[in-house]
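This section describes the prediction task in plain terms. A model, or a person checking by hand, is given the sequence of a single protein chain and must write out its three-dimensional structure as a string of tokens. No templates, partner chains or ligands are provided. The sample shown here is typical of the held-out split.
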Amino acid sequence: MFRFLLYLFETGLCLSLLYLAYWVFLRKETYFNFNRLFLVGSLALTLIIPLLHINFFIPQGSSLEHPARDIERFQSAYEEMIRLIDADFGTEPGAEHRAGGRNLLPSLADEGGNAPELGRANVVQKKKRALSEILIIVYIGGLIYFLARFMYLVIRLYLLAKRNRVTRQEGFRMVEIEEDISPFSFFRFLFINHASFQDVELDHVLEHEKAHIRQKHSMDQLFVHMLAVFQWFNPFAWQIRKALKTTHEYIADKQVLNRGIEPIDYQALLLRQVIGYHSVELVNNFNLKPIKQRIAMMNKTRSGIQARLKAVLVIPIALLIFFLFADFTLKGSDGALFATGPGPEGLWIKQNKDNFSKALLIQKDRISFTEGMEIRDYYLKIDAGTLNLSQREGAGGVDLKYEWKGKELNLWWMDSKTSRYLKSEANNTLDHMLQGMDMNIDLPSISRYRLMDENIVFRIAYGKDPGGGSKLTFNGKPFGLVDLDELVVKEKNKLNKLDQASLTTLFLIDRSIPMVLVDQVRNELRKINSLRIAEGGYPRGDLELSPLLYHTVALPRLLPPLDAKVLDKEEVEKNGGHIHTINLSARNTSPRDEEEALANFIGEHRDGKYVLSLEYDGDIPYGQYVETVDMIFNVVYRFRDELAMHNYQLPYDQLGDHLQWEMRKAFPMALSETMH
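The expected answer:
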């Protein structure tokens, strides 16, 4: 949608500027054929220029470099304006987006008291119509109206020709009409009411209309009318249509007078036609208004040298418009883009405290950076001392001053403020975080993840120290479980009271750590009623997720309170429920077998009356546990997606709250866990 809005804007602005050039320099001159050529050429340029992509070879440091950069900045400015109203803002380079299509904030509401709800984010629960969508709807509505109006005019002409006598003449077809309509021509058809004219007058009228036919003015009219329909919202589109139609009349009038007809007699005929008859839109009418300008042009002295100079002036104006709206790439004299040498590629982490991006990712000709919990992505060109960020490849952009020395990068987001970055040895923010811990952590992979809000999480890491023993840290610092209550209280006090209930423990646990050790930490959290947790890991199966967001990837869960009721299988079955048990301690099945068995079980119990029981012993490694939970959620959500597509032709994530509740009722996430 952005591309279309951009093209619509550029064609409209280009057309407006070219018409203004005509209005200022050419409209009062008698070079009618040149004026016609300029107006028709303006229509063609308007449609073609925004589609062009041209490489310009400009030596660095030349006098042309700065004007070219100014044009790039001008293009970038209006592109940014259009992006601000674009509903597809997140899919274009330079736009903010939530990578991977998942929510940033977890929703851990318990479903029916059974187990915490989890899944991919609800992409948008209740979408507000973006401004761009409203504009497109209005534009399409206007387009349909004016197209329908155009078709009505064409059909009207067809019916007029069909119900009247048509005779073949030399070079045209004459339609002898009875309606009180001023004579007009449309392509090779000349419509005229013979009874309205004397023989001498008829010759004048026929000569005028035959001039339109010989000059093929109807082609111009059709072209300009369709452009006016395309740009129906642009008043200059209708003005240029009117100007071209008037120019056609000037040309036809001139050809009539050149055949020796007395101007006074011809002008009197025009006046009588204006007073007595109405005209038809879309065609070349004999009595086209304003008649005053036509008579003035007949009596005007032929334009001289000064007018020719004006005509010459419109050429640089047209060239300027060409450069303003053509999509071009600047290259140096050697043919290389103005980026020089290999850039500072890699992951950069900010060292000082300010309001600008905490991390940058530079990859060849692209740069991404964080803005809160969102990512902005731009095309990148590197000049001497500046990074040029643009939203389209090869287009103009914004220059940021930078200094780069080895592993240090200074970047001026504002002229008065510098952000200092150090290059990370890691390829993503999660690995960078793990490298900063004095222990080894091999995290599991998860696919049913969400992106956690860093402002409402604290991290508990459990890994292997250099000596091979286990190590436990709280936000990067070693701690004992007896201190957990105090540490969590301090984290809560950093938040406002509305957010304190959302504070979440984000686990970064080595996949080999036995569940008995993990369960000890969980029990301490249950004792202090800090029940929101999230299992951290690497994103699996999502190549679109930005490496700048890896550290926020997690599988949100909800711990049961200390007084939670233990699952009674006999009671569940007595009440008509069904239980499917996944026993990780039974090592005689493969993960694929477990997934297939779970899918068969849920498929057989589509009434939602089931409980999934996950059982394991304390020796089960954390990685196996997390990946099993992830598998369970994937299977349940697969059924929800299938039902949503069957009932509403939309995936589950794109349904509203009420319809999602309907899917959850059919396929609840009723998961119970037991460690033996």
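For orientation: The radius of gyration is 37 Å.
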